[in-house]
Amino acid sequence: MTSIALIGPGRHGTAIATLFALHGVDVTLYHHNQDKAQLAARVVRNGARDASVSVATGLAHAVDGQEIVVLATLWDAAQRAVIADLGDALAGKVLVDVSNPLDVTPAGIFPRRPREGSAGQFVATLLPAGTGHVKVFSNLATASILESADLAPRAVLPFAADSADTATRIRPYLERTGWLPWLVGDISVSGQLEIGGAYNAVHGRWGRSRLDATEMLALAGPEAQLTARSAAFAERN
Fold it and tell me: What domains appear along the chain, each with residue ranges and CATH number?
């Protein structure tokens, strides 16, 4: 529970990396453009407290020895490439998926509805057997990731996981961030955690997408109870 790898540190990914480093979690960054990786590392180091921030020279180097791998690239093609490249190196790890189904083009940013139903469900089709899958942070505006950490009472961080085992593994990491993790279901509910979904559009005590525990309980009820291995996870394995 002391380190993570983060692949694709753009604005959103850099904010997530900074959030973990701010709370004492070591971070290894990887970007296919090493200049961008080094720039992100400087930003993360500025916010780090008792945490190291390093830049990996390759994907395999980035995830080696890590339990948690945050995939913060753009969705679809970039995700396909990274997951295919890593392959079985992801087995036994938990992949944290923070994507939204947005196409970033020279003409602008355009939403797209995945055939699978959500970006999270799309990612689930790519993961090799034995990889845990978590959906989180995709409901939040980039600025909110750091601004809303360590509030009193804590802001709720809704997340989905492919199984109870995966949820148990990721929870201590999320608890360290100064947010209150709240399991809302399995990967089939990923759309609720993406742009336009219930946990993105709702307004609470701390603003859009940010509720306290009382508000979350009223909105969604108690945390979800998952089986040890959800149906989708079992199909992959």
Answer: 3-236 (3.40.50.720)
